[in-house]
Design goal:
Elements lengths: L26 H6 L13 H18 L6 E6 L2 H11 L5 E5 L2 H12 L7 E4 L19 E5 L1 E2 L4 E2 L11 E5 L16 E4 L11 E6 L1 H12 L12 H9 L9 H16 L2 H22 L3 E3 L11 E6 L5 H10 L15 E5 L6 H16 L3
Parallel strand pairs: 2-3, 2-4, 4-7, 7-8
Antiparallel strand pairs: 1-9, 5-6, 8-9, 10-11, 11-12
Length: 375
């Protein structure tokens, strides 16, 4: 193991949270939890429902949600939404784009679903991506799914509709929703958790659903003698409850409060234009630094595919990234290790809207400080 030097406290970032999920939570969000009559009260009562309504309206503004699309909340994280989609949005068969852990996990859920035909999967190596194309109609594909941002690899995909008549396009926005512009008319379900760009916590999913997706869910769930759908996975139940500004079961109320405060803050900062520019600036600092460093390089070779919120960097030297990450954690710089099983010798750095540019600069200076003294 390399003997890294102690880091001069003057070099350290003011806030050392650079994790890719859960992400940095701002003090303002935590202080919102002390609002009287919110925590420890019924989620079906007016005070909490007002927060849910504010969160939904804030998301509509931030994401420029089209008319006719609905902002729907459900219990569980994005992984619960995968199962809900398998139950309520995929009629017979889905095709998937998979180039990391999260695209693969959704495809695996569809593969295990006994009521669905085996999914068709277009795979790319970690650090790359594929573009889904319409399948032969005889293959029976009625839904196409891919991640907008693959959290495990730091690959960001363009968002596009797969032009296949009658098919839905389902996009996993978990680790980029709220940090990059998106044309939601290109998708039927854009779903995400709240513990990434929205700097909140786990326990809920949010989906922006098109009229076609809502109609598909209603039709599947109302089919006489149709498939069994557990109430927890019913999108119709989630839609109906969201229209009342609530969820089917008691939600993680703290997550809702922190997300509402974060979305309001993002809109106050200037909305998507300002927020996406901030994230692009922060991640570009890291990519430019890695390109100029003799022992580092961006894991995602294609510049256009590099994520603005999860920057992955390989160390091309006799230094273990895990050892370096552990040393930085001892100095309160946390959660910059690689996603398990991805990358040969990798750091993964979250550049969320809440992460200050000055802290990114300080992080890079600290890494340089360590590497210069051991290489």
């Amino acid at each position: 193991m390399v003997d890294f030097p102690d880091i001069d406290p003057a070099l350290l970032p003011a806030d050392g949270r650079f994790g890719c999920g859960p992400s940095k939570v701002r003090n303002d969000q935590l202080e919102a939890l002390f609002t009287p009559l919110l925590m420890g009260t019924s989620h079906r009562a007016a005070p909490v429902r007002r927060v849910v309504a504010d969160l939904k309206e804030g998301l509509r503004a931030l994401l420029n949600v089209p008319d006719g699309y609905e902002v729907v909340l459900g219990n569980g994280g994005a992984s619960a939404f995968w199962d809900a989609a398998c139950a309520c949005l995929i009629s017979s068969r889905a095709a998937f784009g998979s180039w990391g852990a999260f695209g693969a996990k959704f495809a695996a859920s569809a593969k295990r679903a006994p009521h669905l035909a085996s999914p068709l999967i277009d795979e790319a190596r970690a650090g790359s991506l594929v573009t889904l194309a319409p399948r032969d109609p005889e293959q029976g594909v009625d839904a196409y799914a891919y991640p907008h941002n693959e959290t495990s690899t730091g690959v960001a995909s363009p968002v596009y509709r797969v032009d296949a008549p009658g098919a839905l396009t389902l996009v996993d926005g978990t680790s980029i929703a709220g940090a990059a512009p998106i044309d939601l008319t290109q998708v039927d379900a854009y779903y995400f958790s709240l513990q990434k760009a929205l700097g909140s916590d786990g326990g809920l999913w949010v989906a922006i659903l098109s009229p076609a997706a809502i109609e598909r869910a209603r039709r599947i769930e109302a089919s006489p003698g149709g498939r069994w759908i557990p109430p927890f996975l019913s999108l119709s139940a989630a839609i109906d409850n969201s229209r009342k500004d609530q969820t089917l079961n008691t939600p993680a109320v703290a997550t809702i409060i922190m997300a509402q405060r974060q979305v309001a803050w993002l809109n106050e900062r200037g909305g998507m234009e300002a927020v996406s520019a901030h994230c692009a600036q922060a991640s570009s600092l890291i990519y430019d630094w890695a390109n100029a460093h003799p022992a580092l390089f961006p894991f995602v070779a294609e510049e256009a595919w590099r994520s603005p919120v999860t920057a992955t960097i390989e160390i091309n030297a006799d230094v273990k990234a895990t050892d370096l990450a552990a040393h930085l954690r001892a100095h309160e710089i946390v959660d910059i290790g690689a996603y398990r099983g991805v990358g040969a010798n990798q750091l993964r750095i979250g550049t969320w809207p809440s992460v200050e540019i000055g802290d990114v600069e300080a992080l890079l200076e600290c890494i340089d400080y360590c590497l210069e003294r051991v290489l």
